[in-house]
Write a structure and sequence with these properties.
By secondary structure, the chain is of the alpha/beta class. The chain is about 40% helix and about 25% strand. The strands form three sheets. It has a six-stranded mixed sheet, sandwiched between helices. A four-stranded antiparallel sheet has the order 2-1-4-5, with helices on one face. A four-stranded antiparallel sheet has the order 12-13-11-14. Bound molecules: adenosine-5'-triphosphate. Adenosine-5'-triphosphate binds next to β2 and α2. It comes from Thermosynechococcus vestitus (strain NIES-2133 / IAM M-273 / BP-1).
Length: about 400
C-alpha cells in the first residue's frame, strides 16, 4: 500500500488567514453604528460552527489482511475539541493518518475545511497541523534550531520565520527553553515543542495523536491548558487518546472506536446520560467462580432497581450493575445476596463514565481491551521469535 510519509503535513504557510487575526482586538467600546470586534468574532464563530471543518465518512483502510479501519465516520466543527477514544489497535492512528494525507484510504470521503483529502492534499496540508505520537525532536538541536528546521520544512517564507517562532514559543510558554538542547528537555517540554512545530504554519485544524501519553499529570495539565487556549482561539482540534478522563475533560464531542468501527458518538455528557443510571460494581468473592457469579447475576437481575448486570470475566468475575436509585439498590442487593446465602467481598458505587459507555457496547472495559490487545501483540511477537529460533 502506498504510504505518503511518516511525520506531519507541510504547508506553504501563507495560504490561510491566521485565526489569531480575529483575536487581536483593540479594546475600546464601539461607537453607535459601528460593529464591535466581539460581534464580528461571534458572527464569525457562528458562521464557522455551521461548517464542518473535518468530515470523515465511511473510512475504510486495510494493511494486507488486517482491517485497521472498517467503517469510521465523524464530523468536527470549527472551534471544537473532538476526541477519538478507543483501546490499542482500534484504528485511531490509522484514521488520523488517512485524514492527514499520510496514508491512502481504501474507501471513504475525507474533507478538511471543504477540501478533499484525496484530491486536494496540498490544500489540506495548508489547513492542518499533525502532531504524531512519537516526539520527533533531534536531541542535538536546540529548541530554536528545531523550530527553524521545521519552519523550513513547512516552506514558511524566510522573512516570516522569526516572528512565527517567537509567536509559538510565547504561546506555549517555551521562551526560556529555546536555547537549550532538545536532549535535555523533559517529556512535557518535548511534547510542547512538538506542538509548537505543528502550529508554525498557523493551521485551522490541529490533529494530535495521544498528545499526553507517558507524561506526568502536571505536564498533562499544561498541555490541556494549551489545547483549551487554542480552541478558544478558534482552532479545531482532533485528538486521540486512551486516557478516559482526558477525553471526558477536554472533548466537546467524541467517537469511541472498537475494532475499526464507531461504537458510540456524541458529547461526553450525552453518551454518559444515554446509558443512564448509577453504577455498582461488586465481587461476591475476591475471585468468584463463574457459576457463582452467574447465580448472583440471575438473582440481582430480578431486582426492580437493577437495570442490567454484566459479568466482567477479566476482573475476577466481578459484577457490573446499572441501577436506578443507588441507595435503595445497595440495600436491596445486600439483602438479596444474604438471603441467597452468597457472600459479598466488595462493593463500590460510581457515576457512569466513558468506560461504562465502552463496557455497555462491547462487554469489556477499555483497560481490559488494552490488556487483551497487548497480550495478542505479545503472543504474535512470541510466535515470531519462536519461528526465528
Ligand atoms: N502500517 C501497518 N501495517 C500493518 N498493520 C498495521 C499498520 N498500522 C496499523 N496496523 C494495524 O492496524 C490496526 C489498527 O492500528 P492503529 O495504530 O490504527 O490503532 P490505534 O487505535 O491507534 O492503536 P494504538 O493506540 O496502539 O496506537 C492494528 O491491528 C495495527 O496492528
Amino acid at each position: 500500500m502506498h504510504e505518503l510519509g511518516n511525520r506531519r503535513s507541510f504547508s506553504s504557510g501563507h495560504g490561510n488567514p491566521p485565526q489569531s487575526a480575529l483575536v487581536a482586538v483593540v479594546a475600546r467600546t464601539p461607537k453607535e453604528g459601528e460593529i464591535s470586534v466581539k460581534m464580528l468574532r461571534e458572527s464569525h464563530t457562528e458562521l464557522m460552527t455551521m461548517t464542518a471543518t473535518v468530515k470523515v465518512e465511511h473510512l475504510r483502510k486495510s494493511y494486507g489482511a488486517i482491517t485497521a479501519v472498517a467503517d469510521v465516520s465523524l464530523t468536527a466543527h470549527q472551534g471544537e475539541i473532538f476526541g477519538v477514544l478507543g483501546p490499542n489497535g482500534s484504528g485511531k492512528t490509522t484514521t488520523l493518518r488517512c485524514l492527514c494525507t499520510l496514508s491512502r484510504p481504501d474507501a471513504g470521503l475525507l474533507e478538511v475545511c471543504g477540501f478533499s483529502v484525496l484530491h486536494q492534499p496540498h490544500l489540506v496540508r495548508q489547513k492542518l497541523g499533525y502532531v504524531a505520537q512519537e516526539v520527533a525532536l533531534d536531541k542535538i538541536l536546540t529548541g530554536q534550531e528545531f523550530l527553524e528546521l521545521q519552519a523550513a520544512l513547512y516552506h514558511i517564507p524566510r522573512a516570516l520565520i522569526p516572528e512565527r517562532i517567537e509567536a509559538v514559543l510565547a504561546r506555549l510558554d517555551l521562551l526560556q527553553w529555546r536555547d537549550r538542547q532538545c536532549g535535555t528537555y523533559s517529556g512535557g517540554i518535548r511534547k510542547r515543542f512538538d506542538l509548537a512545530a505543528g502550529l508554525l504554519h498557523q493551521p485551522q485544524v490541529l490533529v494530535l495523536d495521544e498528545p499526553t501519553v507517558g507524561l506526568d499529570i502536571e505536564s498533562r495539565q499544561v498541555i490541556w491548558d494549551v489545547l483549551r487556549d487554542l480552541k478558544a482561539q478558534g482552532l479545531t482540534i482532533i485528538l486521540t487518546s486512551h486516557y478516559l478522563e482526558e477525553v471526558d475533560l477536554l472533548s466537546d464531542r467524541l467517537v469511541i472506536l472498537d475494532k475499526g468501527r464507531v461504537i458510540a458518538s456524541g458529547s461526553p455528557e450525552e453518551l454518559k446520560a444515554n446509558i443512564g443510571g448509577d453504577r455498582v460494581t461488586l465481587r461476591v468473592r475476591e475471585f468468584t467462580p463463574r457459576q457463582e457469579a452467574q447465580r448472583a447475576q440471575a438473582l440481582l437481575s430480578q431486582l426492580t432497581c437493577v437495570k442490567s448486570a454484566l459479568i466482567n470475566a477479566n476482573q475476577g468475575n466481578s459484577l457490573n450493575l446499572v441501577v436506578t436509585d443507588v441507595t435503595v439498590a445497595i440495600a436491596a442487593i445486600k439483602r438479596a445476596l444474604e438471603e441467597a446465602g452468597l457472600p459479598l467481598f466488595s462493593l463500590a458505587q460510581s457515576r457512569p463514565s466513558l468506560d461504562d459507555v465502552y463496557l455497555a457496547a462491547t462487554g469489556q472495559t477499555l483497560l481490559d481491551a488494552d490488556l487483551a490487545a497487548a497480550a495478542q501483540r505479545d503472543s504474535k511477537q512470541l510466535k515470531k521469535e519462536v519461528m526465528q529460533r
